[in-house]
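Notes continue from the previous slide.

Worked example: a multi-chain complex. Inputs as given:
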Amino acid sequence: MSLATLYPWLKALHVVSAFFFVAGTVTTSMVLAAERANPGSVEPVAGFLAKSERWLTTPAMLLVWAFGLTLAVTAGWFSSTWLQIKFAFVVVLSAVHGIQSGQLRRLVRNKALKPRTTLPLILVCVMAVLVLVVVKP
Amino acid sequence: MSDDYESTQLRWLGMLSVLEATTLVLLVAVAVPLKHIAGWNVAVHVMGPVHGLAFLGYCWAAIQAIAEGGWSRSEAVRLFAVAFIPFAGFANARLIARKSAALRTGVVQ
């Protein structure tokens, strides 16, 4: 099977993984914000969310990276400015996910959360990534 | 979430630290000299991306661990600094083992 044949499949799997990753990251951000606003309010769902984080969002992030890097290599996009800027936004998004994942584990262990608001940063990163990958300026 | 789970997470961080350190050593001490002395580029082309992925994986795990708390500022800086110094990642395993022991005795906040 040639790379040209594989390309749409790699792209589709990259997009599917990205959807799950962003959905999980936004959900965690909102749940953590709700907990900060009203301590104790999300305790019943914290354990479930931590499991989702471990078995869905984090594997989705790894697949986003794996399929994304494979796509960039096969298409020869690494020297493109749009991809380098997109790469920076994805690194920030992954770092935010790491911070939230750590905060969620604090929540599950009944420890106080740090006052960090992540949702605006996540939304800006997602919008920037989508514009860059669609327009490829 | 149990302390066993937390210990597992710290073990993962320790394993990623050793993996990152090993790939960095292979890149700097084997692949790069092979390229410049023997003109053999394949090792750099293989080890470059492998180390890049190991580096990203370790940094993500370190960010997660620091966000969870229980690390002083100097320990947090050390966790990231070791990723840039060949062989330092191996010494990092001791710091992580100490953290794991502190977790078991309930010292980590």
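Summary box: Helices of chain A lie at 3-37, 43-75, 81-108, 119-135. Chain A touches chain B through 20 residues (CB under 8 Å).
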